[in-house]
Write a structure and sequence with these properties.
291 residues, 8 strands, three-stranded antiparallel β-sheet, 8 helices, single chain
Length: 291
């Protein structure tokens, strides 16, 4: 009998110990780093949350749901229509985080599927709204501006839920085959225009160079002609200055053959002038040796 009582006490003590251990284990909870512990008491969400690390709770009455407050990435495909009615398919990447102070509210009102419930529809709506304000070509050339506008609109819509948008990225834009072909043709046309313009500019440079050469050659020729004319004028002036009346008479006599010209008529002044010239010349020639 004594042995039976002793065994019973041992079993009871063991049971109590197990219960105590279970109760102690159920009273402890560890919240992972970067998370917030939302306390649920008998199905009711408490406003008081637990920070990361070791925490205590009421065993078997309270449970703790961990909400991730770390930076998370949400990627999704979005389809929209541009202002010029081009279909635009985009790959969107959103970096976001749940603010710790809103963890209990998000868990109570949305639950753990806040990406599907909140982010997905708001992202789609924001992309469609901003894309409709730009043409397809502007979506390409002003991609960063478009991204910033979508981010601002998205952030304003999810802020009330306690979701903070860290970064918004448009991974890529994709358009219809017809639009891509039109863009390619436009680029080819622009390249051809640039090539034609370059060739025209080169031809103009060559033409200007040739014209410059002709101008330089003409200037050189004109200068040479002017110098030649000036030299001839100087020579003629020198010659004219040297041709005195006496020199002219001597040259005429040097070329005279001694025969007087036969002149009919009453005017004999020419004969007299020639005779006088001959006499003067003869006299001059005769008097020269005496000196």
């Amino acid at each position: 009998m004594a042995n039976t009582v002793k065994v019973g006490k041992i079993i009871l003590g063991a049971v109590v110990g197990v219960i105590a251990l279970a109760t102690a284990a159920a009273s402890m909870v560890t919240v992972p780093a970067g998370h917030t512990g939302v306390v649920v008491t008998m199905g009711k969400v408490s406003e008081n949350t637990m920070s990361e690390g070791f925490n205590m709770k009421i065993p078997f009455v309270q449970t703790v749901e961990c909400v991730n407050n770390q930076l998370q990435v949400y990627e999704v495909d979005a389809t929209a229509v541009s202002r010029d009615l081009q279909t635009v398919s985009s790959r969107i990447a959103v970096n976001y985080r749940v603010q710790a102070t809103h963890s209990a509210s998000i868990y109570r009102n949305i639950g753990s599927h806040y990406e599907t419930v909140v982010l997905m529809p708001v992202v789609q709506e924001s992309v469609k709204s901003v894309t409709a304000q730009y043409t397809a070509e502007e979506l390409i050339t002003e991609r960063s501006t478009v991204g910033e506008e979508i981010k601002a609109l998205l952030a304003s819509k999810v802020e009330e839920y306690g979701i903070y948008i860290e970064k918004f990225n448009i991974v890529n834009f994709d358009f219809s085959a017809e639009f891509n072909e039109a863009i390619e043709q436009k680029q080819v046309a622009e390249q051809n225009l640039i090539k034609t313009k370059t060739e025209q500019e080169q031809a103009l440079v060559i033409a200007n160079a040739e014209a410059e050469k002709k101008i330089i050659a003409a200037d050189a020729e004109a200068s040479a002609t002017l110098k030649k004319a000036q030299a001839e004028a100087d020579a003629n002036k020198l010659l004219n200055d040297s041709l005195t009346e006496l020199v002219l008479q001597n040259r005429m006599l040097d070329k005279w053959d001694g025969v007087l010209p036969k002149v009919s008529g009453s005017d004999s002044s020419l004969l007299l002038d020639v005779g006088e010239t001959a006499s003067n010349t003869s006299g001059t020639n005769q008097s020269t040796p005496a000196q």
